[in-house]
Structures
1.
Amino acid sequence: MTDSVGRRRIRVALFGLFTAAGSLMCTTVNAQTAPPFAQLFDETEDAPRQIELEAEVERAEGLARQARARPNPSVSVMTENVAGQRPYNGFDRSENTLQFNQPIEIGGKRSARIAAGKAGVTAARARTVQGRLTYAYDLARAYGAAEIADRGIGLAEDELEEAEADLRAARALVSAGKEARLRSLQAETEVNSLRAAVDTAKAERIGAYARLSALAGQTTSYTALAEPLLARFEPRANYGPIDPQQTAPYLAAKAESEAAARRVTLARRQAIPDITVSIGVRRLEVDKANALLAGISVPLPFFDRNRGNIDAAQAEQRSADARASAARLEAEAEINAALALNEAADARVAAAEKTLQTAEETYRLARIAYESGKSPLIELIAARRGLGTARGVVLDATAARLDARASLARLQGLTITGEPVQ
């Protein structure tokens, strides 16, 4: 037991040493080492999910710029009194008109359209902040999953080493005639099973790093982490308060509601007919003279009063208002749950660590008792399995604490390492 604990402590020390070296060397030395989380998040601007969020904002900004555009004028040329019967069979009596037509928006359409465009940009930016927080949450979980996979291999290898030590002890007792050969076979079966567990842990590690690399937008999979993330978290006395009306989901929903209200105003104003002012010059060939033309045209809203678009915009506003109300209630529920889960996660980790200490002492005593012939092999195997279970419980509790911290950070508008997301 003492040798196993010593080897495990040496492995932990080496892991810390390599981590510190990786933090200094960063990715310029080893392109397959993921940088510290805060640096990795800053460097993922070209990740597909980040590009998609930026594109949504650019789309809204483009629509807002277009909303400022005024109607284009038109130029028309018309020839009359030609190609007819005499005396209009030629161009001697023709009347040629060059006319300039300018539509003029009335009723505040342009100002309403500009306001709707600005509200759309605000909503897009709010959605982008929400999306970036969700991305930071997913990236933190993927980063933590890679570290947990590393630790999982270490735990599996520790248990395998302990099982191999138990096998050597069983074989020594069998050789001395103090134990039946069946016991060494049982120990050997345990070793074979744990070797398979090590292989499984290595396969899970490959998958965890592949998911982290894909999320970060890397074509080459990471193979190591420059900085551990799980060790950053310490218990706190207080995790709140958090204002639900300042959470990203609620702010995004509120911005969507305001944008929908602007679109209702725009739809109503679009029902007001526009006028078209015309001015032109007419050439009268028969008199060899020019004359000015001026006119105004106004459409009559007999058939199209934009009622369908107004009703649709009002329904969209009601839906957006409902989503904002739901987002506020959901934010309150998520905040309460996150605060409780973080406190529970701290307690769970503390309890798991105490359980691990007890399991380590139990295995140590069981190993001494077995080697002195005072207890059967089955008790030693049970003690070692209990130790392996306790280590897994600590790892699971640490993973749960990571999830709880990531959820809390998302509600606070931060990354898991405390950087604000904008």
2.
Amino acid sequence: MAKAFDGKEGFYPPKRIILANPRGFCAGVKRAIETVEMALRMVGAPVYVFHEIVHNTHVVRELGERGAVFVDRVEEVPKGSLLIFSAHGVSPKERTLAQERGLRVVDATCPLVTKVHMEARKFAREGRTILLVGHKGHEEVVGTMGEAPEHIRLVISVEDIEKVDVPRADKVAVITQTTLSLDETKEIMEAIKKRFPLAVTPAKKDICYATTNRQTAVKEIAPLCDLILVIGSRNSSNSRRLAEVAESCNTRALLVDDVSGINWPYLRGVSTLGITAGASAPEHLVTEVVEFFRAMGTEEIEEWRAAEEEKVRFGLPTELRH
């Protein structure tokens, strides 16, 4: 539990809390978690999951306690076992390894990530050099690059665009990681268009609707707040981007896993506190933070809706439905 406020130390609860809405779980995360839960009910423990099913320590720990085993290599999974691919997607190499080991595979890749994989394959068939805007080492990026490693160049900055080597400037395509910052991507896309004016992009942007909505909500409440509290794990790309978006609006931000991670000195002088949650953070973590502040004396708590209610739903993987 977080340290209680102590007036002598200058820690006082904020007078007002603004809850960003939308926040928390997106459709792809819900689908991935439900996939593991369903698999555990259907076949029992252990169920193996390639990487963390989503990037949240609470979700991973809770599923682990119920029998999910998270692995970083397909070779770690006993032959004939059930293996679930995480929401971030995997490369064709991992799929082949799973098949060779005789594993029963359930693919929980977010459909929006699958869309990016399909784009990579399409552009590669057209003989294009593909500029993938994303963060090196992120599971989603690793999986996407595996679709066409000879064609893809990873870029994450304007400097990267200036230095990237391509065989033909008129045969360039662009795809992006789904969880990036809109502002960050905009700057890079402008640099790409400047150097490669004939570069083609997908008909629909790769950054997912949930990432867009959560960043928009933070942009709207940031000017009203002294501090934005982002609930999410540090290995969550979309959670880190939410903190960066707040700071780009000249509002301080603090990224925490839960109420126990709050750094109280950050709250000195905070009258209005904004709260949001990454797309892989459960809503109960938000509730616990709000209730803590309410118990400390915060009375004004407001929901700020920045977008229409998210009605996107993804069905469970076909392997489970069958």
3.
Amino acid sequence: PAQARAPAAPSAAVSAIDPRQSYPQGSYDELPADNMRKTIARRLTQSFNEVPHVPLTIECEIDALLALRKELNAKSPEGEGAYKISVNDFVLKASALALIQVPEANASWAGDAILRHKHADIGVAVAIDGGLITPIVWRAEEKGLATISAKVRDLAARARDRKLEPSEYQGGTFSVSNLGMFGITSFASVVNQPQGAIMSVGAGVQRPIVRDGAVAIATIMSITLTCDHRAVDGAIGAQFLQAFKGFIEQPVRMML
């Protein structure tokens, strides 16, 4: 008689334990994964298995940023040239400037070398039907806030319509994922290979702080930087976060 073949080993993106064995038939709906979801699962599994993740968290006061944002948006012209700058636009600009100030953090691991990038090409995580995509603002350090804002809106809209070219979402040197709009105050993301780090941005929340020996109220935003320790170790990540915090808490510095 023919010998029974052993089941094939699961791929890196498939669980070794089929969860369908744990639930009675009819108790769930099964939604087949499309190619995008399979690719996301495969890449995230690969990153989590291969990359030594190091999360670092810092808190930033953003009241000055919120005041400047309000002032800038109030000066937006009508019609052509109008803009509406978001907190995330400030985050992208501050990230780009911090990467240029701390170039060791703007790096990728290449197996036998560390690639230190010359420009801050920032990926912006955008949720779309069936998955997540990270379109890139190229050379973000050279762009003003209004330009970054317009670029992100355009990229996000075309990402949701699945009209991005591969050159608009492949590559990049760093990523930002912001879940603050959902009320999430703190989280850590999986590194988006081949990039060396990803920043997770939480919601700004008012809470009491001690300033000059007295209790005051400030709007605090929690930031977690997840580093690929092979390219960006903890000390470098901490230096980057200090530079980022300086730009966020003194936002007029971004305009120099």
4.
Amino acid sequence: DDTALEKMYNYGIKNNAEIVAGNLKRTNLKGDLMANFNYDVGNYAYCDDYGTMDPKDYGIPWAFYKNIYKKSFLDENNVRFPPFKRGVDPVFLAKALAEASVIYTVPVDLYGYNWSIGGGFNNKLFDYSFKKNHLIAFKSSFDILENAGFSEVAHRFKKEVITYLTHFG
């Protein structure tokens, strides 16, 4: 959403922000926007106002794409996507959260993603190589969070990954 990006960008510039977070919606297979269950279950924080949050309060490092990042912050802290075959998104976001001093929040829906129990990512979970590569990336994410003092977030993330792999894999 260009308007959402513009609001996030302007707020980031105004505050010299390292990271600016917005919100996500889900879409069904018809493309209809729906609420995002991740907010309801506390997987990550909902941005309901212009403000700030402590990076430890962000939640599980999923959905890096609901944020915008200051390039110099990424460069200075060597925040990059790792060279893994799968599961690079949480590693990138875990590192960004670990390095950020504060996250600025904007009450906009930046992105709508398709989440389907029977398709997409979930279909791939039955492949051993896919699972193995994701577990390597998840372990890296857990280590980054633990080393940065985000133990609570790391613990919740571990539980979610185990539940997800058990339920869908």
